[in-house]
Amino acid sequence: MILAVIFLPQNLYKSLNVDKIIDEMYSRREKYYYGVITLWQIDCFEGGKGSRANWLKSIVSGFEKKHNGVFVNVEALSVETANKLINSGQKKPDIISWGTGVNLNEQQLIKIKPQNAPQNLLNVTYDTAVPWCMGAYFMIGDGASELWGVDGKIISTKKAQKTVYSVGVPMLNGYVCLNAIKDKCNNIFNDEKALFFGSSQEIFEAYNYSKKVNRMIGTQRDFYRLSAAQTKENARNGEIQFLGYTDLFQYISILKCDNEKKVDVMNSFVEFLLDDQQQSELGSIGLFPISMSANPQYDNTFTQNGWENIKAKGLKTASFIFSGAEAIKQQENCLEILQKKE
Question: How many CB atoms lie within 10 A of CB 327?
């Protein structure tokens, strides 16, 4: 009796449909990749605000919805930890978001083939390391030309004496921000007392609080420092000039993989990351997009104006992503010029 019910025409039809669905499922599994993709986020330069890893986590759900059965696991690592794992061969990611200072070379990566990568702002790119967001350099401070050349001037007050320098320069590990001021103020390269060096935070404090420098080289991070100082009514007034050069890039790369279906999905992720919709969301972490047609919105006028300047004037770029030694050499060459006594 039970068998008779199963083989009734209407039930047999349903059974055949189930078989077709199962066959289709297996066919799709053969054609597409299903599984976990591990993405390392390594912060190699100072951001604007918030976490790049958390930002990536917030957008991957949109990608996962388009690729049923694919899960992107975002892990935040320091440069030191990433290098230790890479050098030991203990663990490597599938995709890496990285910058200068990470011990990878082109032989460890595959060429990226996003289908619809947008027009970008850069004149130098690598096909194994594609930039997906960036920072930029700005001169912040007094733009009056008569103040140039008061380098090393000692100012006396009732309480103490202090030396005031022309420009505060942040020493950013692996990045040569000194290149940003070569065209803008080449005249100060002849005086070793013209510049004051320190960490990014030290330079901001020397400009805004102790007034040890008349102006400083700043990045998008300093716009948020200025904005915070403004809310406390202790921000120093000054001009902001776009310097038109940057080497502050966050790159995306795919490590070598024999699974072609997985590689296709990873290429799709790169394309997803470069799409204007995601690029426009970078305003939430205070970084600048690579796509010229992106429309990020920033929560302070300094950063918003910075983006408008980048779009209008373009950028000179350089990258030492595959050669940390070259970056160090460039840094030393700049310092040698600056410290040279006549």
Answer: 20
